[in-house]
Amino acid sequence: MSYITPAPATLSFGSFDYFCNQIGLSLCPLVGNGREPSCYSRNIQIGGVLIFEPATLVVHVVALVMTSIMISHIKFKYTAVGRKEIVMFFYMYAATIVVEFITISGIIPLASSVYPYAAAVHTSMILATFWTLFMNAFVPFQFIEDGTALSLWVVDISLAAVFFVLAQLLAFQFSSNLCETVKHYLDGMFFSVILNLLAVMMVYKFWDTITKEDLEFAVGCKMNTWEIKDPLLSDSAMASMTHREDAGYGSRY
């Protein structure tokens, strides 16, 4: 009995066959004909457990580390506009990375009764993360000019859009070609996760450019934050007054 190779899937509305033929999404085993990618990266076996997409999983770990660093930097800006909202976006992104790590790695077998729920959570987290980013546009991504250089905003947002579009193209259009070129060591998902991380980092960079330095943080870093200069005095006179004040404080002790 001869084996008949299935015809390549074509892009059609409401069908996931084309996308699942390019990249192994978590929901692919559950929709349509359960089509598998035409080319995917090599697997490794650790402790008797078969791990899928090992290179992509390493990038996921790097993404979690970078996200935690960005969250810690955001929390230093105590009075920044939309601080809690943008932190929520990064928390959602980190949670999506964790769920994606579990679903694509094979930790939960495809035959397991838990897998459909994990895939549903993963898809829901992706949608929720996009909506969180959309809602952030009305809070920290200000539409009214507040003195920040507009050119920096345009560059950051443009780079984020470029990285995101490239991620989708590599994942859903060129994944099979890349996989065959590098002999199954990598596939489109690997590059897609990297570019998605770069897009998220550009979102952080954009938010960072539209928020001013906080007073609480600035006082600890700048010694002369509270220095007040009299505009009627010259620099030499101000320096002389400061020297006399320092000498007077020192003589008390």
TrEMBL record:
It holds the Pfam family Chs7. The chain crosses the membrane at residues 57-74, 86-108, 114-138, 150-172, 184-204. InterPro entries: Chs7. Coiled coil: none annotated. It is a multi-pass membrane protein. Its main location: membrane. One of its GO terms (biological process) is protein folding. It comes from the Eukaryota. It is found in: Endomembrane system; Endoplasmic reticulum membrane. GO terms for molecular function: unfolded protein binding. GO terms for cellular component: endoplasmic reticulum membrane. The keyword Transport applies. Keywords: Cell wall biogenesis/degradation, Endoplasmic reticulum, Membrane, Protein transport, Transmembrane, Transmembrane helix, Transport. Belongs to the CHS7 family. This is Chitin synthase export chaperone. The gene is CHS7.
